[in-house]
Specification:
about 80 residues; top7, de novo designed protein; 2 helices
Amino acid sequence: MKVDIKILKQINGVQRVYLSEIEDARTSREVLDEVYRGRQAVCCYGERVFIRCGDDKDFFGVTAASDIILWIEKRLKKEN
């Protein structure tokens, strides 16, 4: 399943953005690893994480790792 990840962070009036795309995500762990990579890129605190899966046209905000895992697992099951 294709997954797009967008992480936003505002620091002293400057917006930092991390964009990533996984062409064929097979596990929620792959997605979570990429989210952590992005959080490190923009700094770890106060960021906003958005994920879009498959044919979704909108990004959806997620926060906790457990939310990301549950949401991705649910989407992966739907696709199979």
